[in-house]
Write a structure and sequence with these properties.
Strand content: under 5%
Distance between the termini: 31 Å
Number of strands: 0
CATH superfamily: Ferritin, core subunit, four-helix bundle
Order of helices and strands: HHHHHHH
Number of domains: 1
Number of helices: 7
Helix content: over 70%
CATH class: Mainly Alpha
CATH architecture: Up-down Bundle
CATH topology: Ferritin
Shape: globular
Radius of gyration: 16 Å
Length: 194
């Protein structure tokens, strides 16, 4: 059984959170978009791999969690008089998707491990946001998101263990987390999760 704890190769600069705090409404709009896309990502794995029945229950649970988060963020936006806007490309996610290999099995492993690192980065950043917020209700909201997203990072690794060896998972996970750390260095800070 492979090591199921998802990890990152780098930490977010603690100063990053100030951009979020200074532009919280813009961040909420991006956050809602991220939750919707995460739900769609989990469902797309089911669509592309319907024969991988062992992971469908976990994918459905992740999709449901993300849908619940999307609804909750939309409620926060409504309270603040905010509306969704058309999605903008996410340079972080798009660069990670580009490193996914071709070939049915290779792509499945990469998609699961990329999802794991995205969820783990999201959890790290929700923790940072929760710790920085002064509003008690928002602090609790982001603390709860942090816990759920951290579990999702682990769940995607667990899914990979149904079909791939510990050696394959560890080797490819290391390559992806190192690539993710390089991507993080090149990203401009903006009022977004990534």
């Amino acid at each position: 059984m492979p090591r199921l704890r998802a990890q990152l190769a780098s930490a977010t600069d603690p100063d990053w959170v100030q951009v979020i705090l200074d532009n919280f409404d813009d961040f909420l709009i991006d956050h809602a978009s991220c939750e919707r896309k995460a739900m769609a990502y989990a469902m797309s794995v089911i669509v592309k791999y319907p024969d991988r029945t062992e992971i469908i229950p976990d994918l459905l649970q992740v999709a449901q969690d993300e849908l619940d988060h999307f609804r909750d963020v939309l409620e926060l936006m409504e309270q603040r008089g905010l509306q969704m806007i058309p999605d903008e490309p996410d340079p972080y996610v798009n660069q990670l998707i580009k490193i996914c290999r071709h070939g049915r099995d290779e792509r499945l492993l990469d998609r699961l491990l990329v999802a794991s690192v995205i969820e783990t980065r999201g959890a790290e950043r929700f923790r940072i946001i929760a710790e920085a917020l002064e509003d008690a209700e928002l602090k609790e909201f982001y603390r709860n998101l942090w816990a759920t997203e951290a579990k999702h990072g682990d769940v995607f690794r667990k899914m990979a263990s149904h079909y791939f060896s510990e050696t394959e998972i560890e080797q490819r996970s290391q390559e992806i987390t190192e690539a993710e750390a390089e991507i993080m260095v090149g990203l401009k800070w903006r009022a977004s999760l990534h």
